[in-house]
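cache lookup: miss for this entity combination. No prior model stored, computing from scratch. Input as submitted by user K.M.:
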Amino acid sequence: MVKELETSHKLFHSFCLRPNIHFSAQEEGEKIILIVRSHPLTQLSWIANGVILFIVLITIDFVLYNSTTIAQFIMINFLSVIMILSYLWFNFLAYYFNVGIITDKRVIDVDFNSILYREINEAQLNKIEDVTSKSSGYIASVFDYGDIFIQTAGTIANIELIKVPKPTQAERIISDMMEKHG
Amino acid sequence: MVEITNFLNSGNLINIFIKVFSITLSFLYFIYALVIYNQTKIMTKTLMLDYKNIVLAISYFHIILGILLILMSFIII
């Protein structure tokens, strides 16, 4: 099945098969089979927050317009707009760079959860004991996203890929790769 | 006492408050932008993308905006 996979980038690059991307710890000859990110639908909360903040700012502007000078009005708006844009940018970065990478040798989970926090877990395919996928809730079922749990042998940390699209297909790909590695 | 009352009524207090508030937030934003830029550099090193330069440029743009904010908060208001 893995051999049949062709390069594709689905759901706003949240499910990329054989992507033309490299990562820092990539070994010589190691090929990326799949890169997964959280489903775009799960990112709606911060996008909605950004929109709400813009609406709040416009509402506050009606009050501020008559009670501040033009310079103060411009400064307050400039400051607020930049902060909202920066909030949106940071959340986008956190979304885009939190990835699960499945290569032909291992599975890697890269997490950038907050500012200056980086966690990278990896498991060699021959050290993986069990792979399970879970999709719970109406929205997750309708839009086909869920969690993938990769249980590893010994003291190696287990890997969790949270709210990724097509969890069953991803699980199948990992299982196929595991079989290939005995 | 009269001078204080006049000062409060003149609106200068609000002006000072807005100025101090703007300067403080601008500096905090500038530091935040620097941290984000460094974080973006780490991110793009970890996952190498074709459009790495665009991502870095946007983060760098935030630093420029931070400097612009500091200048504005000192000069304009």
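stored under new cache key. Residues 44-92 of chain A form one domain.
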